Amino acid sequence: MIVAKLIDTTLCIGCKACEVACQEWNDQEYTLGTFDGSYQTMPDLAPNFWNLIKFNEVEKNGGTSWLMSKYQCMHCADAGCIAACPAPGAIVQLANGTVDFAHDNCIGCGYCITGCPFDVPKLSPTTKKVYKCTLCSDRTAVGLEPACIKTCPTNCLTFGERDEMIRVADIRTRELKADGFKDAGVYNPQGVGGTNVIYVLNDVKQPESYGLPKDPVIPWTVQLWKGPMKVLGTLAFVGAILGAFFHFVIYGPQDPEVHGHDEE
Amino acid sequence: MTKSEIRIPRFDAYERVMHWMAALSFLYATLTGLAIWSPKLYWLAGVFGGGFVIRGTHPWSGVLFSAVIGWMFARWAKTMGLDSDDKVWLTKMDKYITHQHGALPESGRFNAGQKMLFWSQVVTALLLFASGIVMWFPEWMPRSLRLIAIAMHPLAAIGSISGIIVHIYMGTAAVPHSMRAMLRGWVVPEWARFHHPKWYRQWRDSTNIR
Q: Does 1.20.950.20 match the CATH number of domain B83-210?
């Protein structure tokens, strides 16, 4: 069973209870954020801060929209972090779709940071390993919902079987459209095979206004490096070694005594 | 004394130390780099103390290698310039590969193939160094740079390693006595006259040993 988090941004009141619940459950030490004139706790996610409510102020139709959106690992079906990771077993995809980091195997190279189209994983300067939301895999493993979901007071956050979450999201979208949000829709980007964190947005045509990328894909340089370049490298190395070996077999060494040389 | 007892100095101690520092740091960087390049080669990490260890040491070996390449550049850049004979040599490289030495213009201290290896290593070392610094500190580097570096680093490494595979073959099996030149520093006149005739004559004219 694939599970998913559903974030209905239209119901988020920006209380940040999910931020606190995440910190508490994952036993994170709180680091003072940066005040930059916004209600946002800190500008970006951090190695010990995996769940951030973004307070997006967007000029729209002559007024200002205050769009709050929960920002964390998207648990992609086709995850860029896994594609980029060189250490077997450092990033695992559980049977329920959760993308989880196994820190015993993490070498701290940070390739996952570059592979992730959502710029989520963060390298810790103290442990030299990379951290992000685990979808509370230690809770879901025993049938509990993630801490953020458990604490949400407005039902903005729900958790369950992925197909069910998509069905709920579609119903909610229809309600929003009936209420006049004609561009309301579900954010479940297909460029990464769909995500196990899906959003209901009141304007799905402009996900950027919520701080979400419009068409996230695994970066093409990462795909090039993990795909064609490996074939090229293998051909080059094996070709050079075999070429050298067979050159020796055919022509042998360049020996002045064998080839001779006129005496001067 | 017979000719084969004459020793022509080819690489002085500085050049030999320089070369082997480059070789050892290159070998280490290559093996640890291959380990991080592909999960299929990750077993190599275990040989050097595990992935977490090589993530720390690989960049330093690259810094050392780049520094030695800088030293090499300072020492050899002038010698490695292509003269008109070298340019002809390059167009007839197939003759070199098939051992038709009579059809080739004479080489100086380094032949055109060696010079091309030198320049290709200088270029790839620059690319590897620049992209390596970006990949070393992903948390401080802008995403756009990291995306370029992550493709440029392995691409430059493929070029560099392929060149060195050929270089190792040339220096061991393909050209007898060249390994001794790089380890102990000297060659015999027959070798010098066959492989580097212009350089041999310079030596001959500057000495009264025959």
A: yes
Looking at residue A37, what is its pLDDT?
85
Residues whose CB falls within 8 Å of the CB of residue A197, separated by 6 or more in sequence, listed in order = A4, A5, A7, A72, A73, A74, A75
Q: Are A10 and A202 in contact (CB under 8 A)?
A: yes
ipTM of the complex: 0.91
**Using CB atoms and an 8 Å cut-off, which of residues 217-236 of chain A contact chain B?**
219, 221-222, 224-225, 229-230, 232-233, 236
Best of A106, A122, A247 to substitute, by most chain B Cβ atoms within 10 angstroms, is A247
CATH class of A3-216: alpha beta
Domain A222-259 of CATH type 1.10.3470: no
Identify the segments of chain A with pLDDT beneath 70. 257-264
User: How far, in Å, CA of A204 to CA of A181, rounded?
Assistant: 10
| Strands A3-8 and A197-201, sheet pairing | parallel
pLDDT of B210 strictly over 80: no
Provide the chain A residues 55-74 that lie in CB contact (below 8 A) with chain B.
Answer: none
Residues in chain B within 8 Å Cβ distance of A83: none
pLDDT on residue A264 = 40
| Domain positions in chain A | 3-216, 222-259
User: Lowest mean pLDDT: which of A31-45, B33-47, B165-179?
Assistant: A31-45
Chain B residue numbers touching A125 (CB-CB < 8 A) = 139
Domain ranges of chain B: 11-76, 83-210
Q: A interface mutation test: which of B30, B40, B99 has the most A CBs within 10 A?
A: B99
CA distances from A191 to A4, A77, B16 (A): 17, 10, 53
pLDDT above 90 covers a percentage of chain B that reads 93
